[in-house]
Design brief:
CATH class of the largest domain: Alpha Beta
CATH architecture of the largest domain: Alpha-Beta Complex
Number of strands: 11
């Protein structure tokens, strides 16, 4: 489902009873589109998509906001144009993905502070591990169990059917199975702690302004689990970003944790485990979408990490 600016303009006009100003597209992901607009002298973003629960999670995630974890408030969630909408405050800044090498190097300390802020979020009113819903409940009794479900082609998943497509792909399921075996071995060293994990801190979901993180958006994939998962996200995906080529995220994090006095047992093993998980999940997604080249690249990279 893709919307034109004219459709969004008409929806906002009907929703507010008066025309919105400066409606313009901001971008689109697999599951939603975003448009900027102004109303009463203030800037907002309206997102439209087919999965209302994604927007409700964003609304709930705003309660976790802090100075180092800025999350725009979602003001409204509802139904529109055959799907769902969310209207939120607009944050200012440039996408982290678009930074050049100098800008990326400059923002590393701020990224680590943001990960610290997520780690410090109080989750005592929630329960479970893995992907949480708008009520704060995640379905798995342990972090390890959640990690191992990456091989399950559950009917409830949006990408149900990925397993058959992977098996029928040019690369097949062999590299997936080999890497999964290593994941299962490494998962035994993972902790039982529960922290807030964004689980998608690239893909134009982090805004930067004046050398700091100005917003963290799109919490649809957020998890409860090990805080190192978000660090592993940067490590795994950095080869796709030329501006990150000279950044050793693992070494930067080691220095940062030493500075703040944080002990992280089994640091390297946990990061390897989560990189494998990220790679396996990417293979499932790319198999479902039918992106053969990306599937093969992820399969090779993930297997290399698993065997390293």
């Amino acid at each position: 489902m893709r919307f034109k600016t004219e459709q969004v303009d008409a929806f906002l006009n009907g929703h507010y009873g008066q025309p919105a100003e400066s409606v313009q597209p901001l971008g689109a992901g697999e599951w939603s589109q975003a448009f900027a607009f102004r109303r009463a002298g203030k800037d907002y973003v309206v997102r439209l998509g087919t999965h209302g629960e994604d927007f409700t999670k964003d609304q709930q995630a705003a309660q976790f906001a802090s100075s180092h974890l800025p999350i725009p408030r979602v003001l409204e969630v509802g139904e529109a144009l055959g799907g769902y909408f969310a209207i939120s405050e607009r944050a200012c800044g440039h996408m982290l993905d678009d930074l050049d090498a100098a800008g990326m190097r400059q923002i590393v300390p701020a990224v680590l502070q943001t990960l610290d802020a997520a780690r410090a979020v109080n989750l005592s009113s929630s329960r479970g591990y893995g992907a949480w819903d708008a009520s704060g409940v995640a379905p798995h009794p342990s972090w390890r169990e959640y990690l191992l479900t990456v091989a399950h082609d559950a009917r409830a998943r949006r990408i149900h059917g990925w397993r058959a497509r992977l098996e029928n792909s040019r690369i097949g399921a062999g590299p997936f199975e080999a890497a999964y075996k290593r994941l299962a071995e490494l998962s035994h060293v993972c902790p039982t702690d529960r922290h807030l994990v964004h689980s998608d801190l690239l893909n134009h979901n982090v805004l930067v302004a004046d050398g700091r993180i100005s917003a963290v958006i799109d919490w649809a994939n957020s998890l409860y689990g090990d805080f190192l998962y978000d660090l592993a996200w940067f490590i795994f995906w950095s080869p796709w970003y030329p501006a990150m080529q000279d950044i050793d995220w693992q070494a930067e994090a080691r220095r940062h944790y030493a500075t703040i006095g944080l002990m992280v047992p089994n640091f390297a093993e946990r990061l390897r485990c989560y990189q494998i998980h990220i790679g396996l999940d990417a293979q499932a997604y790319n198999a479902f979408i039918g992106r053969q080249v990306q599937l093969e690249i992820n399969a090779r990279n993930t297997l290399k990490i698993a065997q390293g």
